[in-house]
Amino acid sequence: MTNRNFLAAVVLGSSALILALVVTGCRHEDGSASSAGTTPAFLDVNLPPHPAPTAATLAHGKELYDVNCAHCHGEKGNGAGYGAPFLVPAPRDFVAAQYKFRTTASGQLPTDDDIFRTISRGATGTGMPPWQYLLDENDRWALVDYVKSFSPRLAANPERKPMPIAQVSDTSRDTENGRQVYVKMQCAKCHGDDGRGAGPSAATLLDAKGKYINTRDFTMAASYRTGFVEREIVRTMETGMNGTPMPSYSGVISPKDQHDMVAYLMTMASHGGNQRRQNARSMEGVGAPARVITVREHAWKFEPSEIRIKAGEVVQIQFSTTDNGLGAGHGFAIDGFDQQVFMNGAMVGAPLSTTFKIDEPGRYNFYCSTQCSTTDLHPHMHGTLIVD
């Protein structure tokens, strides 16, 4: 087994492990969840003023979209980008405009603020990164305006208002009542008696496009796409998730019952483990780097794709990403040295670094050491290290 294959076996394992990384790779030990360490919950995203859309901002939004978004969501915004077949859940279809994450009532279109929130914070445990770390607020608003143009309904800019989210004045929560509400509302049919998302109906659930849809696993804090906090889960129960079998419970159960059930759901979640499953290894005993080289992933390629160093030079690679891969991030390793020098699990807003030296001149391949190195999703995730 070559070094590279050995690392792939250790880091990647089987496709089941890849899925486990996607689901479990975003947990704090304290139980909060986000796609990067400081990512706020959906409702906590800062909302700067929305500049009035112009032809110039739409053109700028298109430029940003083509570079950063089209490879997943498709040039036409229909969710059919090159990477779409590899992503679970599938990228949003902006033409159909079935938005899951909203503050509007079930079946309604999202507000501009909702789209801005989703672009800004991404979706925990998925390939959708938090663009707030990569694009300034004007760029993100330009993307909102352009994304809306894909949907005739949204392009017409109908009035959309947030719905009131159920609140209770009492801060105490009755988890036993919450359990009884869970039983009464027959949540176990989809989510299972134990909340693991394996209820008797789970295997039959389809989205609006007729594709199989995963059922939320309540035992994993990281499975909560918009944040593992009470009011976020209550918001989801109030709004429902358009385009999925998840209904709205607004007006169906009382606010107290909602909050009690959310408290019960949160008791199911396990909180152990490293949120980002990040790992970085450097060569031992090489000392401080003489040179620092910045490398980033962008559109499933390394930038730069060629690195030139001197034999015996101590070098540090600082690696950042512009997307989150399949929700498990990206990595960097060097053929022949990948048991001594590698990084995996780098995510947006969570870069990694490694330090090494190579004494023997030559050309060495570097590649993504996370799951993307074993699939067709990242055919360009490699580069050349030239040691003079």
How are the secondary structure elements laid out?
Elements lengths: L2 H9 L3 H10 L30 H14 L1 H4 L38 H10 L15 H12 L3 H4 L19 H10 L3 H4 L38 H10 L15 H14 L10 E3 L9 E8 L2 E3 L2 E4 L5 E7 L8 E5 L7 E5 L5 E5 L5 E6 L14 E6 L1
Parallel strand pairs: 2-5, 4-10
Antiparallel strand pairs: 1-7, 2-3, 5-8, 6-7, 6-9, 9-10
Helix pairs in contact: 3-6, 5-6, 8-11, 10-11
Task: Indicate the CATH architecture of the largest domain.
Answer: Orthogonal Bundle
Q: What does the largest sheet look like?
A: 6 strands, mixed
Number of helices: 11
Q: What distance separates the N and C termini?
A: 28 Å
Using only CA atoms, what is the Rg?
22 Å
Number of strands: 10
| Broad shape | globular
CATH superfamily of the largest domain: Cytochrome c-like domain
Average pLDDT number = 84
User: What ranges have pLDDT less than 50 throughout 5 or more consecutive residues?
Assistant: 1-37, 271-276
Instruction: State the helical fraction.
Output: 25-40%
CATH class group of the largest domain: Mainly Alpha
User: Structural class from helices and strands?
Assistant: alpha+beta
| Strand residue content | 5-15%
Q: Trace the largest sheet across and list its strands.
A: 1-7-6-9-10-4
